[in-house]
Design goal:
- The complex is a heterodimer.
- Chain A has helices spanning 2-9, 17-22, 26-31, 36-42, 44-51, 98-102, 120-129, 142-150, 206-219, 221-247, 261-267, 271-285, 303-327, 393-404, and strands spanning 53-59, 83-85, 92-94, 107-113, 160-163, 188-190, 289-294, 334-339, 343-344, 356-357, 361-366, 374-376, 378-379, 386-388, 411-413, 419-421.
- By secondary structure, chain A is an alpha/beta fold.
- Chain B has a 3-stranded antiparallel beta sheet, with no helix packed on it. A two-stranded antiparallel ribbon of chain B has the order 4-5. Chain B has a two-stranded parallel ribbon with strand order 6-7.
- In chain B, 50% of the residues lie in helices and 5% in strands.
- Chain B is mainly alpha-helical.
- Chain B is globular.
- Classes of the chains: A alpha/beta, B mainly alpha.
């Protein structure tokens, strides 16, 4: 019960009894015979689900596992990268991530990620959807699935925000969209986390905007009566939602200037750092899924220097995000997934680079029931193959669903009437959970 | 809808006869065909509310708006609306269709449509820039020169060489030269048969087998879509000799073809797979193992496009009919296989056969469909599943490029150019406002229109985008500033804006609403900015009704 209590009180930092009642089935509430605690216990799954959120830190281009979470110091394949101790004895990571090393107690490293796709867009799409791209079916991306399954449909803000700060390049659309789930679950995409999303700033004052909206309503009635009834109704619904969004006090969730200087400094000032801070603010405001990208990790040349540069942009914001969520009591309900589309080759090529390598790489999980301070799976001495406990892309996605209380076997219908499972096959990585 | 007067068959046939008699010499044929299509259609799907008068027909203003948007993707100008309404000629609707089909924007509009048909199913996002660019002008020129549809299909299927020079490479390059994906698209687009469902396993509800799918893929094993390492340009290259193993890089793009196609064994994926002979499922036509690439693709193109093929003409007619009347004989429009049921199959068969007899004359088909009584019916929302089919022309959402072009047109704004110094491919990739609009408003034209939803980013773009906000100002060098200065009478100015933005005059009540609004605001410039904003942000502006 204590566990449930804490789960309830910390929900997005703002859960009130009123919010809480919304998720209780009417019958149970109407019965009136249940105590507050009984009701809570009876609805624990629904409650937990409602409070969950997810941040995907997308490492576009495919980060080198050797220079991040699976270094091979002493082996030829390891190159010049050295290892350092972490907060957890027995777990070592690359020297490029000293701050992350100190917060490893919150992280679960999966060093045995294992796939087949070695092309950026296809692998990016696969990691986001669990499927390869197909002309016949628009598979939905993870953020859209999560938004549909556990997002708050009554929220002023969209449930899925994508901050495409870097590393995405042309592959940003390979990250997928709502596809067969419909535009309600498409991401609100932002290129710059330091500015409000595109076209959300009014071009006139509030009052004049209100005047225009009222005029628009009156001008549409003739068309509505001449065969345009449905288009007008649909249009008015969307315009009302859009107006509610731009006028919503929750838009301040997008305003990083509202954040104390100390917190801003803790994250840092790079676009990725701003994206991480924005992710926390948005989750707090009621957004369910935020995707923030960092890159480019595609180090075919000069791998060691270039990876170090990107690691420098990763280390502080990632650590600050975990610490910030934790101190606000939000880490227990917020899942963090750190991953790219694949890893990089063990063999260092003649340009001191590493090429695409989907066969053995690392993804990282934290929060939302994940047991931190552990490593799952292992690669062999030279990082050439998974030695222990292979984890597939679908295993990983199924694990994400499990953590968020989503039924991965649920089927959605494609436009040609084919049922599409949220995740087709795969198994939950059970040992990831506490 | 229920009380709208409809006429009995005999009554409207005589009405059609009057229409036919009134036509200029040489134009009889499309109108005669159109009348026959209407007759067959109403035999199969009678009007639910038949009444002894002519079928309702939209007025001149609405006809001009509809046909302009349908053919050239643009609204008529206020001058064109007025001139058309005042024109006393009996055959003015046929004449305007002919004129619009001669306008170069016809090819631009439909070139973008077919570019979207192909590119919304591309297998890799980056290909948008490699393929979308040469594809669009190729299609535009093909439509403007009225290249027969069978020739266009043949060019898509048999294309070779550099993708930058030849837009017909678009379909193959969009599928990265992968035989299975190419044939899925060839079948879907040109035949309206969704055979790709049989790629992995036999489907209980479909008649085509996995083997037939792979026999179709066997027309394409020898080609590859190969990027040049330096220039990044993609070429379609065919191989008729056994390639060296050296070229095979399984995790990278398919850089070279194989001599024959093999169907993998799902129980034993490591095995070589079963050797497949090229066979076209729809007709049974086939070629022996060992046939060179040119003959494989050449034969396939011939068999797909010949008149005996039961699907080719029907697939195109069904799609165009759906785009122009709002409701396809088959829906979705690219799923017309033998296990699907058509609304009014005889009307479709007839029109498809006549289309094939013209030698697949694209403009002829536009002339016929726009001349039907069905096309000229008033528009209504999409019917519910229980309502009778084809009782109205159905309002259609404009496509992204059409919305954008019409904004530029009505606001007299020009499309921002790439910043100075941005040239060549980078200029083509320039993410200007058109791209923003395409992202927000774009949709796959093969999806059912009732599945395409409006979205919040669309509303935000119309409400707040800086391009629109700037262009609708009533001050400075803008369209509205010029009109405010030139037209002193408020009701005339309201009418000018209605004609310009919606292609029609304001009704009495709309005029009164606007006049009242201008009075209340008590600032003429601001008030008309708001009226213009309201018209541009209306559902009517975004639809072709």
């Amino acid at each position: 019960m204590l566990h449930l209590q804490s789960n309830v009180t910390i929900r997005r930092g703002h859960l009130r009894r009123r919010d809480f009642l919304k998720v209780i089935p009417a019958a149970a509430a109407a019965a009136g015979t249940l105590s507050w605690q009984d009701v809570m216990a009876a609805n624990a799954p629904a409650l937990r689900k409602a409070g969950k959120a997810c941040i995907l830190l997308w490492m576009g281009g495919g980060p080198s596992q050797f220079e991040t979470f699976d270094p091979k110091q002493g082996h030829t394949n390891g190159g010049e990268t050295k290892t350092i101790q972490t907060a957890i004895s027995g777990i070592e990571i690359s020297e490029n991530l000293p701050k992350i090393a100190r917060s490893l107690g919150d992280l679960c490293l999966i060093r045995s990620m294992n796939g087949k796709e070695g092309q950026h867009p296809r692998a990016t799409f696969l990691m986001h959807t669990g499927y390869l791209p197909s002309p016949a079916v628009k598979y939905p991306t993870l953020g859209s699935i999560v938004a549909k399954e556990i997002g708050d449909p009554a929220s002023d803000l969209p449930s899925f925000v994508r901050v495409a700060t870097g590393g995405a390049g042309n592959a940003v659309s390979a990250m997928g969209s709502a596809g067969i789930l419909g535009v309600d679950y498409d991401p609100l995409t932002m290129a710059n986390p330091g500015r409000p999303p595109e076209n959300t700033s009014l071009s006139t004052g509030d009052e004049r905007f209100g005047r225009r909206m009222r005029l628009l309503d009156r001008l549409q009635s003739d068309y509505a009566h001449q065969g345009g009834r449905e288009e007008v109704a649909d249009h008015q619904k969307i315009y009302a939602q859009a107006a509610r969004l731009v006028m919503s006090p929750k838009m301040s969730g997008f305003d990083l200037d509202k954040e104390p200087q100390k917190i801003k400094e803790a994250y840092g000032s790079s676009p990725f750092a701003q994206g991480c801070l924005l992710a926390r603010r948005l989750i707090e405001t009621g957004v369910t899924f935020v995707e923030v990208s960092l890159g480019p990790w595609d180090t075919h040349q000069d791998n060691f220097n270039r990876t170090r540069t990107v690691c420098n942009q990763l280390d502080q914001p990632f650590t600050a995000l975990i610490a910030d969520l934790k101190s606000r009591g939000m880490l227990d309900s917020t899942l963090i997934l750190w991953t790219g589309e694949f890893g990089r080759t063990p063999r260092i090529n003649p340009n001191a680079g590493r090429d695409h390598f989907p066969r053995a790489f690392t993804s990282v999980l934290a929060g939302s029931g994940i047991r931190g301070g552990q490593v799952i799976g292992a690669t062999d001495a030279g990082g050439e193959a998974v030695k222990d406990r292979p984890v597939s892309v679908n295993d990983l996605l199924r694990t994400v669903c499990h953590s968020l209380g989503i039924d991965a076997d649920k089927q959605n219908m494609s436009s040609i009437g084919r049922p599409i499972r949220i995740v087709d096959g795969g198994e939950v990585v059970k040992e990831a959970f506490a | 809808m229920a009380n709208r007067p409809f006429i009995a068959l005999s009554g409207w046939l005589s009405f059609v006869a009057i229409l036919v008699n009134g036509l200029a010499a040489g134009a009889e044929q499309p109108a005669t065909i159109a009348a026959k299509v209407d007759q067959l259609l109403r035999e199969e799907v009678p009007f639910a509310n038949a009444a002894p008068k002519a079928p309702p027909r939209i007025d001149d203003e609405r006809f001009l708006r509809r046909v302009s948007l349908d053919i050239i993707g643009r609204l008529p100008t206020p001058e064109e609306v007025t001139a058309f309404s005042l024109d006393p000629a009996a055959d003015k609707r046929t004449t305007i269709v002919a004129k619009l089909l001669g306008d170069l924007r016809f090819g631009g509009n439909w070139g973008r449509y077919w570019r979207d048909v192909i590119m919304y199913r591309k297998s890799e996002e980056r290909l948008q820039f490699l393929v979308g660019i040469p594809l669009e002008p190729y299609l535009a020129e093909s439509f403007n020169s009225n290249k027969p549809w069978n020739q266009i299909a043949t060019e898509f299927i048999t294309v070779s060489g550099g993708a930058n020079e030849n837009g017909a490479s678009g379909l193959i390059v969009a599928q990265q030269g992968q035989p299975e994906e190419i044939v899925g698209e060839v079948s879907r687009i040109f035949l309206g048969v969704q055979i790709q469902c049989a790629q992995c396993h036999d489907h209980p509800t479909d008649r085509w087998t996995r083997e037939q799918f792979h026999q179709l893929a066997a027309f394409f094993p020898r080609i590859a879509s190969r990027p040049n390492q330096q220039t990044r340009e993609i070429s379609i290259v065919a191989t008729d000799v056994e390639p060296r193993q050296l070229f095979r890089r399984p995790m990278m793009n398919r850089g070279i073809g194989t001599l024959e196609h093999r169907m993998s064994d799902p129980k034993n994926p490591q095995s070589e797979g079963k050797l497949m002979q090229p066979v076209l499922f729809a007709t049974g036509d086939n070629l022996p193992i060992g046939t060179p690439d040119a003959e494989r693709r050449g034969s396939l193109a011939k068999w797909i496009t010949e008149k005996e093929n039961p699907y080719f003409a029907k697939a195109f007619v069904n799609r165009m009919w759906s785009e122009l009347t709002g409701e396809g004989f088959y829906e979705p429009i690219d799923d017309i296989g033998p296990d699907r049921h058509a609304t009014a199959p005889k009307a479709l068969e007839y029109l498809a056969r006549e289309f094939a007899d013209t030698g697949y004359d694209l403009k002829w088909l536009f002339r016929v469909i726009t001349a039907t009584a069905m096309y000229q019916l008033p528009s209504s929302p999409r019917r519910g599943p229980e309502d009778p089919p084809m009782q109205h022309n159905v309002a259609q959402r404009l496509r992204a490029d059409q919305v954008f072009d019409n904004l530029l047109l009505v606001l007299e704004a020009s499309e921002p150019a790439p910043p100075p110094g941005v040239l060549g491919p980078a200029a083509l990739r320039f993410a200007g406002p058109r791209r923003q609009f395409t992202t927000a408003f774009g949709y796959d034209p093969s999806t059912r229109r009732d599945e395409i939803q409006s979205s919040i980013p669309q509303a935000l773009a119309m409400m707040n985008s800086p391009l629109i906000a700037g262009a609708l100002r009533g001050t400075g060098n803008t369209m509205l500033a010029r009109k405010l200065a030139a037209i002193n009478d408020d009701s005339s100015l309201v009418q000018e804006l209605y004609l310009r933005v919606l292609g029609r005059e304001a009704s009495q009540s709309e005029l009164a609403t606007c006049q009242q609004f201008v009075k209340e605001v008590n600032n003429r410039t601001e008030a008309f900015e708001d009226v213009l904003w309201g018209l541009i942000n209306s559902a009517e502006f975004l639809h072709r009704s």
